Amino acid sequence: MTVTADVCVLGAGLIGGSLMRALGPGRTFGWNRSAAGAEAATAAGFAVTTDLTATLRRARQDDALVVVAVPLPALDTVLDAVAEHAPDVALTDVISVKGPVLDAARRRGLAARFVGGHPMAGTAHSGWDATDPDLFRGATWLVAADDHTDPDTWTRVAGLALDTGARILSATSTDHDAAVARISHLGHVLAEALALSGARGGDLALALAAGSFRDGTRVAATAPDLVRAICEPNRDALLEVLDECLADLGAARSALAERGTLGALVERGHHARRAYDLAQTDRADGRGEPLEVTPGADGWLEELRAAGAAGREVRPVG
Amino acid sequence: MTVTADVCVLGAGLIGGSLMRALGPGRTFGWNRSAAGAEAATAAGFAVTTDLTATLRRARQDDALVVVAVPLPALDTVLDAVAEHAPDVALTDVISVKGPVLDAARRRGLAARFVGGHPMAGTAHSGWDATDPDLFRGATWLVAADDHTDPDTWTRVAGLALDTGARILSATSTDHDAAVARISHLGHVLAEALALSGARGGDLALALAAGSFRDGTRVAATAPDLVRAICEPNRDALLEVLDECLADLGAARSALAERGTLGALVERGHHARRAYDLAQTDRADGRGEPLEVTPGADGWLEELRAAGAAGREVRPVG
C-alpha cells in the first residue's frame, strides 16, 4: 500500500517542521521560504522546496490538506499564492491567533474550505533544527468551530491533529483569541515587565534573583519579533485583558498603600491557580472522555463549542 | 573532640529545619512553637523543644548564635522573649524582609549583636517534612551590612551561611528590601494577576493553558497567608516597584491601542532577561572570585556594600 502525501506544509519552521516529522516523509511535502530551511528538511528526507507555486499546484492536484505554518507577518503573501494557484484546496493553519487568519482567508474567497487551527505547543527556539516529532504529543490542538465550517475539512484537520498525538479542543475563532489573550499573551506582557523591573535593580537584584524570577520571566527570553508577532495581532482581546489586569493591580496597589494588605488579589489569584491545577489533574487522569461529534450532523458546531467552553476534548466520528 | 552546639534555631519550619539539617544535630538545638513540628525534629535526632525560655537560656549560657526562623507575624513574640531571656546573644534571622526585622531588634535594644540574613531559597511547601539539608547549597545568602554592624557577629553569620553551602552577598537592609521587591515580591503580585486573568476565561482558557501559563503562575500556588507575610512587610519598596510596573504596562497598553505595537516593553524586557541570563552564566562559570573582606577593618562595610551592588560574592578573612 502506498501512503498518499496528503498534507502540504507551507513553512518548515518549528511548528511546520515538527508537524512534518510527526506525520513522516511519506505523508507530507512542503515549501519553505529560506533555502537553508528547505535544505535542512530535504537532508532529513522530506520533500521541501522553495518553489511555492509548484508546491501549491501539487497540493491542488493531489487534493492535499494545506497547512499554513508561517509567522503571521508572512500570511498575506502565502494566502495570495494559495488564492492564485490552489483556491479550492482544504486549508488550515497553525498560527497563534485565529480571527485575523479567518478574516484574511475570507478576504481572498478561501473560507469555504478553511478551518483554523492552533496547536498549543512550542519552545523559545525556532527553525528546522528545533523541530521535534513529539512536539504535539499530549498537547491541546484548537480546531476552530466557526459558522459555515465545512464538515469534511474540519474532519481532516481534526484527523491531522490526532495523528500527531494531540488532543482536540474546539471553539470559535473569537473565543479562542479571547482565551489565549488571557493564558498566553498577557503572560508575555507581564514577563517582560517583571524582567524590566528586576534589571532596573542592577547587579544586586539580578544576583539575588532565584527560581521565582527565572520562571516568571522565562518567556521574556523569546525573541522580541516573535513575541510581537504572537501578541500584537490579537490586539483587541489583549487590550481588554490588559485593562482588567491593570484594574486588578491598581486595586492591589491601593489596598497595600491604604491598608497594608494585598489580600483580595492574593486570595483570588491563589484560588485561580488551584482551578488551573485541578483542570490539569483532571486532564492527566483522563477524567471526562472526549465528546464524540459527527461533523455535519444537526447542531454539530454548537456541540463542539459547548464542549470547548467546558474545556472538554472532542473527537470526530461517523 | 566534642562539637559545640553553637547554633540555636528558633522555628523548625522549612528554612529553620533545613538549616538544622544542613549543620547537623551536633551543632544545633532549637525551639518550635507547635509540638508536632518539635516532635518531628526530635524524631529526626534534633534537640528541639517547645520551651522557648529554656532554649534561650541555653543559648545565652553557651553563647550560641540565635537564628530567628519564624514567619514575620511571629517575630515580635520571639524577639520579646530574646530580650527577656538572652538579651546579649549574637542574633540573626532568615526572614525575607530585612528593614522591619532590624527595626524590631533596635526597638528592643538587641541591635548591638544583630546581623540580619536572608537565604534566597525555598519551595512552595512548608514545615519539617519539607526540610532539605541541601536547600541552601549554591543559593545566595544575604548577610546585612548595616551601619554599626558588629564584625564578630557578621563573621559568625557569614560562617553559618558558608557552612550550608551558600554563597554570601552583602548589602544594607534597605538595599536588600528594594532589590527583593523587584525580583521576588512583584513576581508574586504579577503571578496572582495572571492566574486570575486565566481563570476568568473559564474552562476553555484553562484547558488551552500551556507551559508559559504554568510557569508564570507558579508562585500563585503558594499559600495566600505566606505570600502576604512575604510581601506586605515590604510595603514601601513594593509600592515603588508596583508604580513603575503599572507605568510600564500602561505605556504598553497605550502603544498597543494607538499604534498596534508593544514594541518598547518587549525590547526592553528581552534585554533585561538577557542581563539576568548573563548574570546567571557568570555565576555558574565561577567568574568573579569572592571578594575577601576583613570584618572590622577600616571601610569593611563600604567594601561589602560595593561588592553587593556589583552582584559580587564576599567572604570573611582574617
The structure class of chain A reads alpha/beta
- Strand numbers in spatial order across the main sheet of chain A: 3-2-1-4-5
Globular, elongated, flat, extended or rod-shaped: what is the shape of chain A?
A: globular
Count of discrete domains of chain A = 2
Count up the helices of chain A.
13
Biggest interface and its residues per chain? A-B, 99 and 99 residues
Q: Kindly provide the radius of gyration of chain A, computed on alpha-carbon positions and rounded to a whole number of angstroms.
A: 21 Å
Uncertain segments of chain A of ≥5 residues (pLDDT<50)? none
Q: What is the CATH third-level topology name of the largest domain in chain A? A: Rossmann fold
Distance between the termini of chain A: 24 Å
What is the CATH C-level name of the largest domain in chain A? Alpha Beta
Structure overview:
Helix content of chain A is 53%, strand content 12%. The first copy, chain A, is of the alpha/beta class and 318 residues long. Chain A folds into two domains: 7-171 and 288-316, NAD(P)-binding Rossmann-like Domain (Rossmann fold, 3-Layer(aba) Sandwich), CATH 3.40.50; 177-261, 6-phosphogluconate dehydrogenase C-terminal like domain (6-phosphogluconate dehydrogenase C-terminal fold), CATH 1.10.3660. In chain A, helix 3 (52-62) packs across helix 4. The longest helix of chain A has 28 residues, at 173-200. The first copy, chain A, is globular and about 70 Å long. At the A-B interface, helix 7, helix 8, helix 9, helix 10 and helix 11 of A face helix 7, helix 8, helix 9, helix 10 and helix 11 of B.
